[in-house]
Design brief:
flat, about 10% strand, mainly alpha, about 110 residues, 5 helices
């Protein structure tokens, strides 16, 4: 199944700058299609919404800082697990093909 959500629909669902919707839609759709190409269209669309929302709301930098009163906190942000953290991987998991890779038989 292919992703059928439009950039306009995506922009209305995830908010943010509507000009970014086509870009994050393309990235999220490619990732979702590659991960689980046989998932139903509704599942593809929801996974794209979740991943695109994560992409649209995440900062590009690796360090964030927040000041509240006299206290300033800095932390490192890693987006390495964005697919899992957005919920997209969990939605697509039942349609994911798991492979064992190269398994060699040993003589007994």
């Amino acid at each position: 199944m292919a992703v059928t959500i439009t950039a306009e629909e995506l922009a209305s669902l995830i908010g943010g700058d509507p000009g970014h919707a086509p870009r994050v839609l393309a990235v999220a759709a490619a990732r979702v299609d590659r991960y689980a190409p046989d998932a139903p269209g509704e599942i593809h669309n929801e996974a794209v919404i979740r991943l695109a929302g994560y992409l649209a709301q995440s900062d590009y930098g690796g360090i964030s800082e927040e000041t509240i009163g006299p206290m300033t906190v800095k932390w490192t942000i890693s987006h390495a697990a964005m697919f899992r953290n957005s919920g997209a991987a969990g939605l697509l998991a039942p349609w994911r093909t798991h492979r064992a890779g190269n398994v060699e038989e040993t003589a007994a």
